[in-house]
Amino acid sequence: MEASINGGPLKRFSFYTHVDALGVSSKVAKEAGLRAVAKQKIEAFGDVIWLYYGVLDSFKLGGIELRNIPVGWSERESGGEVAPEAHDGMIGTWVFYHFLSTSTTRAGR
């Protein structure tokens, strides 16, 4: 699905239930001017990876805008993205649990 970060151009996002909040690529984080309020250094995939955590001012999905939401991104200490560039980020369950799910089916149909 497509969404806008801080009023910028549309980016490609995947929905993934194993991600807690909103995750973006380090490229998108830089383009959006995100600043880390916390960071963590881990070793994974045979490399040292930095995980960054911040607050996103605006995330627009169609006509819905979410404000001041937690966001995370990561990058290899050696440089480059951790995740494949098939998308610009992942929408986790934290984002979707703020919405009421409804069914369009009726009983007896």
Secondary structure elements and pairings:
Elements: E1 2-5, E2 10-15, E3 22-24, H1 26-31, E4 38-44, E5 47-61, E6 64-76, E7 89-91, H2 93-96
Parallel strand pairs: 2-7, 3-6
Antiparallel strand pairs: 1-2, 1-5, 3-7, 4-5, 5-6
Main sheet: strands, sense, barrel: 6 strands, mixed, barrel
The CATH topology annotation reads as: Cathepsin D, subunit A, domain 1
CATH class: Mainly Beta
Shape annotation: globular
Order of helices and strands: EEEHEEEEH
In terms of DSSP E residues, the strand content is: over 45%
Q: Tell me the radius of gyration.
A: 16 Å
Going by CATH, what is the homologous superfamily? Acid Proteases
Strand order of the largest sheet: 1-2-7-3-6-5
Helix/strand/pairing class, anyone?
Answer: mainly beta
**Helix amount:** under 10%
| Intertermini distance | 30 Å
- Determine the mean pLDDT: 86
> Which spans of ≥5 residues are poorly predicted at pLDDT below 50?
none
The number of distinct β-strands equals: 7
